[in-house]
Amino acid sequence: MVYKLNEISILMHLLSNKIGLHQVGATEEQVLQALNITGKNRTYYFQDLLTNLSKYIEPLGLEVKYNPIDSHWFLSFDSEISDTISANPFEGKPRLAATLFCVLVCCLQNAGIGKIQDIKKLRNKKNIHEDLKE
Are the beta carbons of 58 and 81 closer than 8 angstroms? Predict the structure, then answer.
């Protein structure tokens, strides 16, 4: 199945949404309702969405996890996954990694288009042109 970037951005938002002091993410029903998914195959579609999202965000060191206590799915950072990436293209420049992450988030939210103004706002920096050049 091919998923639209809108579905991915909605799913990313729901799974990273902090609800309370100790609760993060969304239930299966909340995700299905937000994406307006109905029918007899909705559970299959939900599992397929989560599997594909998990594969998509794995290179970033993120993974989709389930909390059985409150039945919420959420995003988690896995340091083991990020440690397995041996090559560091950022050469000790965390600002480049932060800028790239902001570019990816903007692209996911805006159907593949990341505007410099949005990246600046998300990054909270006045000038990101040098980062983008590198």
Answer: yes
